[in-house]
């Protein structure tokens, strides 16, 4: 079965609200459980720095968003769930893409153009108050996507242009340096709810009309009761069309419940009663999640550990790809012969396996990188042949699934252990170098 890679980022500059839940979190968690899908969800904290210079807010938002996704059922063992700033390969790739990205294309990015238009309106210099970060936003986003060879990127309509830019930068790079990147498609969920906010406009932080996803019960009730309604009295029939209250209800109800609620509107339900019904419906779905959220928020150490483990898993992909890309553009070991000559190529730069016998008579091997740093140390084996066979197998490369904690498994048994301070990604990259050499 071919696997579809789905990837999306969440900017860590705010507190998740009901609109984020219905529009992004709930459908994404459901999608991550489907077979044949590999899901990559990450906290776009480098992007947050473009929007805010408030460090406490970035940190708080990162914690809240991570806790929200986990509380809503995202399983970090089944998906890639990580923090952008834990992946140093992302800013590195951003630079490589910056060097192929057309400046004219970036000039046409909606967010940048909107800032310029606003400046023109008030007679300011075009770029007044515009940071290079805002201008480069689409390149960083392209690096997020291209790094993991995502096929499909679920985003809101406002982000479609960014996905098109990622395709553009990716295909320019492929054209110049060979086929390294998959060109992504935007996935716009047509039947996912866009929720209205308290004032009836789209629920959005910029309108200050949101209902925080995990507002405590009392606050949730207060907010629901503050939803804007018309002045029709109890007993008067009410329109569901254009009613924020009704749309919110519908996003959380079964079709049967929604039909019943519509009938109650026609029959003249009072606004107070309708609001109480919405509050109860929301609280029934959210209360168990809120409990998990609160427990998670009380354990930032746990969330930090989950994100770090996620970063390690993501880097097992990013590190070898970045190595490949660096070579592709000419950022190479100088000991390699320029222009090919396969035999001489990179020999000196390769890691090496050292085989030896310990006092106990058993045969061991170590993987040592080009700088003499130990990466892997094996178990002891009864014969040199056994050890040799494992070395040969390892030179074919291993995936991240071969690692169980620090232990490297092969053919169902632990055969070696990562050296102190070495991540699976380092060993995977070193072994990939052998595979490439042999190819
Ligand atoms: N720009 C996206 C937004 O504001 C967030 C984001 C950053 C993202 N990197 C991404 C989304 C990569 C999808 C893929 O919503």
Strand content: 5-15%
Biggest sheet: strands, sense, closure?
Answer: 6 strands, antiparallel
CATH superfamily of the largest domain: HUPs
Low-confidence stretches: 343-348
> How many separate structural domains?
3
What's the alpha carbon Rg, rounded to whole Å?
Answer: 27 Å
H-E string: EHEHHEHHHHEHEHHHHHEEEHEEEH
List bound small molecules: tryptophan
Describe this structure as you would to a colleague:
The strands form three sheets. The chain has a six-stranded antiparallel beta sheet. The chain folds into three domains: about 5-195 and about 300-310, 3-Layer(aba) Sandwich (Rossmann fold), CATH 3.40.50; about 215-295, Tyrosyl-Transfer RNA Synthetase (Orthogonal Bundle), CATH 1.10.240.10; about 335-435, PH-domain like (Roll). Helices cover about 50% and strands about 15% of the residues. The two termini are about 25 Å apart. The protein contains 15 helices and eleven strands. The chain is α/β, with parallel strands linked by helices and about 450 residues long. The chain has helices at about 20-30, 45-50, 55-70, 90-100, 105, 110-120, 130-145, 160-175, 215-225, 245-250, 255-265, 270-295, 300-330, 385-395, 425-439, and strands at about 5-10, 35-45, 80-85, 150-155, 185, 350-355, 365-370, 375-380, 405, 405-410, 415-420. Bound molecules: tryptophan (TRP). Tryptophan (TRP) binds near residues 145 and 155.
